[in-house]
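Minimal example, chain plus iron/sulfur cluster.
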Amino acid sequence: MLKCSLDKLQALFAKIAENAKLYLPIDNSDGTASYGEWSEGTAWSNALNTTKSPKDFFFPQTEDLMKFKTEGKNIEVIDVRRECEDFVIFGVRACDVKSFDILDRVFLTEPRDSYYAMKRAHGIIVSVACQKPAETCFCGTFGIDATEPAGDVTAWKSEDALYLRANTEKGSALLDKLADLLEEGSDEAVTAQKEKTKKILDKLPLKELTTDAFGGGKTKELFDDPAWDALSATCLGCGTCTFVCPTCQCYDIKDFNTGNGVVRYRCWDSCMYSEFTRMAHGNNRLTQKERFRQRFMHKLVYFPENNDGMFSCVGCGRCLAKCPISMNIVKVMKKIGGNKGE
Ligand code: SF4
Ligand code: SF4
């Protein structure tokens, strides 16, 4: 276990930024936090999490895929992919680190998505253990330990130091470069901090929420549950829940005529939108109830069915905080799954 005293944190960030772009959660003026690039003096936010998840680093909200130029009957296809440089995402919480495993299932399974794969290969993740999880957190429901996040390097913050442990080759290489600022730290300090956090986790209101009623093979049982009517009745179809979600991965592909050629780009889409997956014959989900059901059946039944039991939710709580009608996956799990605390 290595340790960096907190008064050397800016020096640590400067050292990281010598070799790679460094991104970290930064406070906004409205009390929220967002990922941004570090520059001298940029303070690391104390917020539990960012409003939007760090999935943008690998799967940006909009991304050019290719360009076309036409001249008469000739069409030139221009590859816009560029080798990207190493970058470090610092301060990623356990739930968001787990979301990358879920996205990997989608984008790195053959046929691999080369746009995503390139960024994933160059991204170095420094996670940080949670100290004060919020009442909206339920990562434990999906087997995630907020005190022991994965990533290339795991960090624990105490009152006076940051403790760091490399988990991968990329992580070891990063810590090697920071060696001048690091010293040996005791495991006891980390254990004590983890114990403190576990006491908070034990008291969280969603601690009893389970996935017992969900998983692969539950389609027949859950699809026609009459509770979907009431659950979806006031859904606005705004898509906020999908845009803040670290695991939502649907996108649309569009062409834009610049007047000097065509840019083909992709942008996030939402299964909550009425035009989502519309085909030549029309749309196969005609009501908001069907669209709403699709989102939760996908996360809780279809995804685990096709991915060795892996659920497509990490319990980050963002949709609980942001839905304008206070509807969310927890309410669905309680109502449809008969979970405690209904
Ligand atoms: S569940 Fe909430 S956030 Fe999601 S689309 Fe419906 S109203 Fe919007
Ligand atoms: S469904 Fe909600 S709680 Fe689950 S990962 Fe997405 S935003 Fe987080």
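The mean pLDDT is 95. The chain has two domains: 2-202, 219-337.
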